[in-house]
C-alpha cells in the first residue's frame, strides 16, 4: 500500500512548552491510524501542523512524496486534507448549510441559499446524519454541532481525513454511525487519522496506533497486537488501573428532593415535570442524549435558571427560589459542563478562580476586603492536593491545559466540603489518568456520605459509577434503574424515548 | 403643532438629508465590524473625507474629482488602520481614537496652512442636486425623494447593495464568517487578513463619503470639526441597527427625523435646548422600548493571530 | 523596576517617532522644529507655573479617565463621561453658590458628594438599568445621556434656573467656603490634585483588594461565570456604570471648585473623549491613568505655548498625539524600529571592530 | 499710566511693542470674532510694525494660563476675545497691573489696565431688520416668496448672538408689524450642515430672507439661501463674497477696526481703561452696501433710520422682544 503521509522529525514549541518534539509517523492509504496520548501530549498540535494552522519549528511532512510547506489551511484544503477539529471550528451565528459550504461555496457571486440547503440535506442523508440544514448552529446541541463539523469535512471530499476527538460529544448510536462511515471510507482507500481517548473505540476500528507522550512519539504498533491495557500503559508511562472499583454502600437519607420540576427556556418547556431524589452516600447518574433537558434541570437545581413549576428541597429546606449564593452556602457544589463558559474566569489568576464561589466568605475576605494571604495559602493547598500543573498559583487560568483547568474546578468544588456535588460532564475530553483521578474523587465523596448527582453523556462512566441511574428524554424522566442492573442496550433505548415496560 | 409639522414634506426631506451623513459612516462601520474590526474612527475618517474632498475639488475644479480623491484618502487611512489592527494585532479602539484625534488635528492644520483662517475658497465646486423627473411630480413623495443631493441617492443605493452583498453573496458570507470566528474561517480556507482589509477599507471609504456629503454635497466648503460628532452618532446607529445595513439606515433615519423635528418644533416658547434633547432621548427610548439587546459579531474587536 | 522601565520604552520611542514626523511637517511648512519643540517642552514643564498648570489640566483627565477605566474593567464602554462631567459640574457649582454659612470643609464635602451622586445616577440609572434589564448597549445610552446633559447645562445657564442675573449666561460664582484652595499660587493647581491621587489609590484598592472589585472584574471578564459564582450580575453592571459616573462627576466638581469657580455656557469640555484615550493607553491601570493624563495635559498646554512662540498652529500637537496613540497601540511598529535600530548599531559597531 | 511708551517714532520701539491675542475655544476659524480680532491684529502688525503673538485656547481653563503667559513675557497689550474670558481677565489683570488688557464683548470695570470693547450690535441688527421688513412689504422683489416671513438662525442663546437678533426683530417689526420671524438656535457654531438644514426648513416654511448669527454654522445658512434662490443677510463682516447674488447686505461688527484702533491708541499712549462702546455713531457697527435687488427707497429709508439712531431719536434695546 502506498504511503500517504509521512511526518519526519517535526518539532514545535510554544512559550514554555515543547508541544511536539521530533515527532515521526506515517499513514498509508486505506488505513485508520489512531493517535493516543494523555492530555497535552501534543496530538492536536501535530494535526494542526499537518493542516497548515501552525508552522513547525523544524521537520518535514510529505504527502505522497510531495514535501508540504503549508502556510495556511487553504493550501491543505487544496491538497485534499480535511480535518475535524477538537474544539469546534464553527460559526454559531450562521446556519448549518452556511457553515458547511463556507470556503467552497458553489456558484460565483450569489449565495445560493435554497440550493445549498438541499445539497446539505442530501449530504447528511448520505452519511445517515439527521440534521436541519437551515438551523442556526448556535442553537444546536453540542452533539449536533459535532455532526456539522464532520459533515464539513465530507462536503470537501478529502483525500486524507484527520478526526481529532470526533466522538467526544456523540451518543453511542452516533458513534456507531460514524464508525460505519469511517469503515466505508477505508474501503474506498481513504486514509484516516483518528484521535480518541476512548480505548475501546481505538481498539475496534483502527489498524495501527501511534502513542504520544510529552510531545514525543513513543511507539507505533499494530492495533491487533496490543491490548487496551498495553496502550494505556504506553500512554501514561506506568501501570494504570482501567476499572473503577466501587465498594457496595447503603445509601442514607435523602438530601435533595426534586418534585415535578418544570423549567422553560426560549419560551418552551425544556424540563417537563421531573421528580427524583438523591440520597446521602449515593451517586445518582443522569443519563440522556445531549439536549434533552439535563442542562436546564441542573441549572434549576443550582439556581442559575428559574424553576417555573415544582419544588426543590435541599436538606429539608425549600430552595426553589433561593439565589445561587444561598444555595452555595447551604452546601451545593457544582462542576458545570462547560468549563470555559461557566466554570472559570479565564483571565483571572488561579488564586482568584479557586475562591470564585467563596470569595466573600471568611477567611478569604473580611469586611469586604480580600485577604490575599489566606487566598494564596488556600490556593497552594488545593494546587498540591489536586496536582494542578503548573504549580504556579498566579498563572492565568487561560494558560492551563483543559485537564488542569478541570482539576482547578474540581478542587474548588470538592474542597468546599459540600453536602451535594452536581457534576456535569466532569471528565469530558480528559485522558485516562485524569478521568481516573476524578472518578476516585467522586467515590470518595460518596464514601463520606455526601450526595453526588452525576450528569454524563458517557454511558460507561454512568454505569461504572452510579448507584441509581435516571434516564431523561425530552424533558421527562423515563425511568430510574438500579446502577448494577442496567445494561447499555436498555439505557440506550430509554434515552431515545423507548419505554420497554410500556412497550413490552 | 406636532401634527402640522408631521405633514410638512420638508420635514421628511430634512430627515433624509440629516440621516445621510449618519447612515453612510454607520454603513461603513457595519462593514468593518462585520469583518471583526471594531471601528470607532468614523468621526476622523469623515473629517479626512470632508477636507480632502474640498481640497481635490478646488484644485481640479471638479466635485467628482474631489469625491474620488476623498474616497482614495479614506481608503489610504483605512489601509493604515487595517495594517496595524490586522497585521500587528493593535488594540482597535485605541487606534480608532488615535485616528480621530489625528484627523481632527491634521485637517485643521492643513486648512490653516493651505487656505488660511478665512476658510476654503467659495469657488469650490459642489456635488449636484438631482431632480428625479418621474418622482418629483408625485405628491408627498416628490418633495421628499424627488430632489436631493446625488450623495443621498448614492447612500440609498449603497445601503440596499450592501444588504445584498452582506447577506446574499458568497463574499458577504465570508466577510461575516471572519467577523464571527476568524479561526473557523481560517480552517475553512478563507484568507482572514484579506477579508478584514476588505471590510476596513470599504468601511473607511463609506465614512469618507459621509464626510464628502457634508463638505461637497450639502455645501462646498470645509469647516474645522464639521463632522460634529456624527461619526460617534453613526457608531450608535450601527449598534442600534444591529450591525446591518438596513438597520443602520433605520436608526439613522430615526435620528435624522428627531433632529429635523427638533428644528421644526422650535419657537413654541420652549427652550431650544430642551427641544434639542429630543433626538437623544428618543434614541434611548426606542432602544430600550423596541430594540433591546443587540449583539456584536462574536469576534468583533478581537485580533486574529493564527499562531496563538 | 526593570519591567517598568521596559514598559516605558515603547511609549517613549513612540513619542520620539511622532515628534520626528511632526518636525518633518514643520520643515515642510517652513517652521523651525527646534524652537517649536523647545517652546512646547518649556510651556509644559519649563517653570513651576507651567508645570503646575500642566498638572492642573491633568486632574480632570485623571478622574474621568479612572471612571472610564472602571467601566472597562467591568466590561462596559462608558462613552458618556463628558455628560457625567457636566452633571457633576452643575451640581457642585449649584451647591457651591447656594448653600450659605457652612464651614469650608463641610461645604466642599457636600458639594463633591452630591456632584458624585448625581453624576453616578446619570450614568448608572438609565444606561445601567437599560443595560441590566433590556440589554441596551451602553455605548448608545451613555453617549445619548451625555448629549442630553450638555443641553441641560445650556438650558440651566441660558435664562434657566442657574443663570446669574446680568449680561452673560453663566452661573454665579461659588462662595469662598466652597472653593478648593491652590497648592501653587498664581497657577490653577489646586488641592484637587490630592483628591485625584487619592482617588487613584482608592480605585486601585477597590478593584484589586476588595470583594466589590472582584465582583466587578469577574462580571467584566465572564458574566456567566460571575453568575455561577453567585454574583448579582445586573446589579453589578449598574454599579459599575454608577461608580464610573461618580468619578466623572468628581472630575467636574473638582474642576469647578478648584479652578473655574462657576459654570460657563460652553459646548464640551473635551474631557470625555480624552478620558477614553487616557484609560485605554493606561491599559485601565489606575496609576497608568496618572501618567497618561499628564502626558495629554502636557501636549495640550505645551502646544499652545508652541503656537505662541513659533507660530506653528496648536493643531499640530493633535496630529502628533494622534500619531503617538497610534504607535503606542501598535507596539509592534515601535518594536520593529527598535530592532532595526539595534541591528544598525551592532552592524555599525561590528564595522568599527 | 507712565509705563506706556510715549513715542512710537523709532522702528525699534515699534518692534518692541508686543501685542498678544488669546482666542476663546472657537479658534481662529470661527468666521466671527476670533477671526476678525486677529484680522485687526494682523493689520496692526503690517501697518504699525508691532510684534504679535496669537494663541488658540483649547479649553476654558486655558484662558487664564494663556493670558498669564503673555503677561509674563512682557507683552504690552493682551487681547482677550470673547465674553467667556471675563473671569480670567479680571484675575490676571489684577496680578499683572503693568500689562494692558483688552477684552472684546464683555465688561471688566474698575480696572485701570483693562479696556472693554463693547459693540452695540443691536443697532446694526435693527438696521438690517428694517431692511428685511421693508423688503418683505415691497411687492415685485425678484425671488421673494410673498409670505412676509423671515428666518433667523442663532448659534447659541448668548448675548453676542441675541443682541443682533433682538435688534433685528425690533427693526423688522418697526416697519412691518405683521412680519413673521422664525427663530431657531442650532446650539453649535461649527456645523454648517446643520445650519443649512435649519435654514432650508425655514425657507420651506415661507422665509425668503434668512439671517444667520452663528459663526461657521452660518455659512450653511447662506448656502441654503443660495440654493433656494432667496436672500440672506451676512453677519459680523461683509459676507457678500460668499454668494454675491444672495447676501443682500451684512450686519457689520467692526471687531477688526476696533482691535486695530485700540492697539494704535495704546501704542500712542492713549490707552483708555473701562468700557469702550462701538456703535453707529463711531462706525463701530453698521451695514454693508446692499446689492441691486434691494430697491433704492428701501436703502434710503434704512439710512434714514440709521441717522435717527445716531441722533438718539430711536432707541434700540438689546433685550429680546416678548414672544421670543
Ligand atoms: N496555542 C498554544 N499556545 C501555547 N501553548 C499551547 C498552544 N496550543 C497547545 N499548547 C500546549 O502544547 C501542549 C500540547 O497541546 P495539544 O493541544 O497538542 O495537546 P493534545 O495532545 O491535543 O491534548 P488533549 O488530549 O487535551 O487534546 C500543551 O501543553 C498545551 O498547553
Ligand atoms: N453577589 C452579591 N450581589 C450583591 N451584593 C452582594 C453580593 N455578595 C455580597 N454582597 C453584598 O456586599 C456586601 C459586602 O460583601 P461581603 O463579602 O462582606 O459579604 P458577606 O459578609 O459574605 O455577606 P453575608 O454575610 O450576607 O454572606 C455585603 O453587604 C453583601 O450583602
Ligand atoms: Mg487535543
Ligand atoms: Mg463575609
TrEMBL record, chain A:
It comes from the Bacteria. It is a peripheral membrane protein. SMART domains: AAA. It comes from Desulfosporosinus acidiphilus (strain DSM 22704 / JCM 16185 / SJ4). Keywords: ATP-binding, Cell membrane, Membrane, Nucleotide-binding, Repeat, Translocase, Transport. The keyword Transport applies. Residues 5-239, 256-499 form the ABC transporter domain. The keyword Ribonucleoprotein does not apply. GO terms for molecular function: ATP binding; ATP hydrolysis activity. This is ATPase component of uncharacterized ABC-type transporter. GO terms for cellular component: plasma membrane. Gene3D superfamilies: P-loop containing nucleotide triphosphate hydrolases. It is found in: Cell membrane. Signal peptide: none annotated. Coiled coil: none annotated.
TrEMBL record, chain B:
Its main location: membrane. The chain crosses the membrane at residues 12-31, 38-58, 64-86, 93-115, 150-167, 197-216, 277-296. InterPro entries: ABC_transp_permease (IPR001851). One of its GO terms (cellular component) is plasma membrane. The keyword Hydrolase does not apply. Keywords: Cell membrane, Membrane, Transmembrane, Transmembrane helix. It is found in: Cell membrane. It is a multi-pass membrane protein. GO terms for molecular function: transmembrane transporter activity. CDD domains: TM_PBP1_transp_TpRbsC_like. This is Putative ABC-type transport system, permease component. It comes from Desulfosporosinus acidiphilus (strain DSM 22704 / JCM 16185 / SJ4).
Automatic annotation (TrEMBL), chain C:
The keyword Lipid biosynthesis does not apply. The keyword Membrane applies. It holds the Pfam family BPD_transp_2. CDD domains: TM_PBP1_transp_TpRbsC_like. One of its GO terms (cellular component) is plasma membrane. One of its GO terms (molecular function) is transmembrane transporter activity. Keywords: Cell membrane, Membrane, Transmembrane, Transmembrane helix. InterPro entries: ABC_transp_permease. It is a multi-pass membrane protein. It is found in: Cell membrane. Its main location: membrane. This is ABC-type uncharacterized transport system, permease component. It comes from Desulfosporosinus acidiphilus (strain DSM 22704 / JCM 16185 / SJ4). The lineage of its organism: Bacteria, Bacillati, Bacillota, Clostridia, Eubacteriales.
